[in-house]
Amino acid sequence: MPNEKETAAVAQIPLKEKLRRVQEKLDLVLWAAGLAWWDWDVTTGHVDFSPRKVEMLGYTPDEIPPRVEAFIDLIHPDDHDNAMDAMRAHLQGRRPVYEVRYRLRTRDGGWKWLMDRGRVVARNEDGQPLRVTGAVQDIYEIKQAEEERDWLFSLSPDLFTIAGFDGHLKQVNPAWHRRLGWSAPELLQTPWIELVHPDDRKTAESVSAALYDGKPVYDAEIRCRHRDGSWRWLSWNAASRPDREQIFAVAHDVTERKAREQELDRYRQNLEEMVEQRTAELTRANARLEQEVQDRKEAQTQLRRQSEELARSNADLEQFAYIASHDLQEPLRKIRAFGDRLAGKYQDRLDDRGLDYLERMQSAAGRMQAMINELLT
Predict the structure, then answer these.
(1) In 3D, which of 201, 202, 182 has the Cα closest to residue 190?
(2) How far apart are CA 363 and CA 323, in angstroms?
(3) Can you tell me the distance from the alpha carbon of 219 to that of 237, in angstroms, rounded to the nearest whole number?
(4) Which of 69, 137, 236, 263 is a Cys-bridge partner for 115, taking CB atoms 3.0 to 4.6 Å apart?
């Protein structure tokens, strides 16, 4: 704790010297953090800045006029419009803070990446900005790491992206162009939901809702539109930072696998249809076979009945033949027997006409015997 003498000594230091010492301490702290401060009077265009700000660029404080135009002139042409738009958006109250990355020209003619942040600290009664204060940070190492990351991402066949909760992609790697045909500017200007197949948008919205709640998502398969109008199946893994309203996602193109699965499904479906068709054919064939078996059984039954009837008929015929043989041949045998007796005993007593009659009777009896034998056969 300072004693009374030290306190009295500090009290005697002029205010200007106190401010200078505070400024030195602030500059040391900011220097240790890799930062430099600046203070812009919007009405006059005058800018106060710490020496560290110009030292980052290789200049001395005397080489850079304390005017906002002097620093604007150092901005890389490709970054100029973005930096100006960011500043105007903050001054007009459309953004809570001014934050932008850009390159400034160094004293040796090169370029250095800086992160510039600031905010309006004073406005007039009409809300017009009067003063803006901020800090600038040397992000050379950050940009170098990002370039190494981008280089790594550029070699990946998978699609990497950083998206915002506002529904837009913020950063994409070259695999997007290789897989979907879109350029990075086209992708960043298009709401990502417009790239999703209409049938998959409910799934995509469900995935987004989970990510907004901070829940990771794995293996979410969603179709995305190729620039030529076709569709590619992408399998997504993603995680989010709700505090920064950012989503970090990587997608693997599984279109060929899905095509094989669909082809396999079609083959399986065709096979099932073929099995069903063959089963139906076999069922009909079995029905026909069963009908044929039934018809054959009925035919066999009918044949058996006919055989039985034929057997009965044959038995009847045999009975008839027996009866016919006995009843018909018995009188005939008597006729022949008596004819033989007449021929043997009374032949010499008969005249020629009697012998003729007897011969005719014997001949008729023989013919009758032959007819009966043929009938029996």
Answers:
(1) 182
(2) 24
(3) 6
(4) 137
Q: Which residues contact 358 (CB under 8 A, 6 or more apart)?
A: 339, 342, 343, 347, 350
| CA angle 53–58–60, rounded 5-degree value | 70
The whole-angstrom separation of Cα 47 and Cα 71 is 9
Q: pTM of whole model > 0.90? A: no
**What CA–CA distance (Å, rounded) separates 116 from 134?**
7
Per-residue pLDDT, 56: 86
Cα distances (Å, whole numbers) of residue 65 to 46, 69, 267, 301: 9, 9, 77, 125
Q: How many angstroms separate the most distant Cα atoms in the chain?
A: 208
Return the amino acid letter for 359. Answer: E
Pair 52, 138: CB distance under 8 Å: no
Structure tokens at 327: 């009843």
For the purposes of burial, counting CB atoms within 10 Å of the CB of 171, is it exposed (0-12), middle (13-18) or buried (19 or more)?
A: middle
Rg (CA), the chain: 60
Count the Cβ atoms, other than its own, within 10 Å of residue 249: 21
Beta-carbon contacts of 226 under 8 Å, excluding residues fewer than 6 positions away, are 179, 180, 181, 232
Residues written for the chain: 377
Helix (H, G, I), strand (E, B) or coil at 150: helix
pLDDT tens for residues 161-178?
Answer: 999 999 999 989 889 999
For residue 373, give both structure tokens: 């034998």
Tokens of 216: 């990771």
313: its two tokens: 């008929």
The count of other CB atoms within 10 Å of the CB of residue 203 is: 16
- Residue with the two structure tokens 């899905």: 258
Tokens 């919205």 locate to 205
Q: How far apart are CA 26 and CA 14, in angstroms?
A: 18
Contact 200, 224 (CB under 8 A): no
Residue 129's identity, in one-letter code, is: P
Residues 6 or more apart from 204 whose CB is under 8 A from it? 193, 196, 222
Which of 219-233, 313-327, 354-368 is predicted least confidently?
313-327
